[in-house]
Amino acid sequence: MGYLLLILATLSWSFVGILVKSASTMVDSTTITFARFSLGIVFLGILLLVKDRKLGLKLDLRWIWIGALGKSCNYLFENMAISIGYSYGNILVGPIQTVILLLVSVFIFKEHVSLRGWIAGALCIMGVLCISWNGLPLHTMLASNGLTTLLFVLSAIGTAFHVLSQKMLVQSMESGPMNFSIFFLCSILMAVPLPFQAHATGGTVPLWGIAALVGLGLITGLSFNWFAEALKRVSFAAAVIVSNSGALFTILWSYLFFHDRITGYILSGVGLFIAGLLLLNWPMRKARLAARKPGQTASDAG
Known about the structure:
Layout: H1 2-14, H2 16-23, H3 29-52, H4 62-84, H5 93-107, H6 115-133, H7 138-144, H8 146-169, H9 175-191, H10 194-197, H11 207-231, H12 236-244, H13 246-258, H14 264-281, H15 285-291
């Protein structure tokens, strides 16, 4: 069951790019962001009521607000970038977020980062640069990919603050009520600019665009809960491998649904940042040795 939940979460996230791109043919990025959160809390709320008989809404914690602001920026800038760029572009958010969190660990929390961590961060940066470059001349890259890369950087900054809020809240809150509280605030925050910015992009309302918005809401509401439950049942190493493979599926869907051109530079960039993420998150041998019982051999530990 744990692996099924892990695969469901990973596949769900891999579809975000094509769903946002599809919805952008009908409505603007602000409306897409509001729909992701508002529909997300509906689906998550139903799940919590069935599971726990309560929503657990809590709005009086500072880190709930910080997480909501971060996640709102994450989705808003991500949706804007995907709307004007390629549907696979959101694969940049993960590695950029990783580098930001490394820097926050060093300069804000004064934590020690090992050589392995810095090498992983360098691989992530190289992967992002390789994808953004995509073999283009510098002036062409800045003109065509510069804005979308900047938007993904802003999105990654937002999601980094969301991750930090989860780190602070997870000790005192279950993942379901925590996400419901944050997404509830996000839906309120993103409702504020709707009367001023929201507009339809076409004269008709395509059925696929509506389905895309519903799908995004479903992913927002349920995928994080699926992933949290999966982590309780599967090894961390397996979670790292499966979740990071989502970038490959994102590229595959982009090629199959929108016929986006996938070059060797993009695949090389993905390979670089996946290597960096695996290197950073892979359990260290020291931790395995420390966890081994006295007198237990390496073969006994599995």
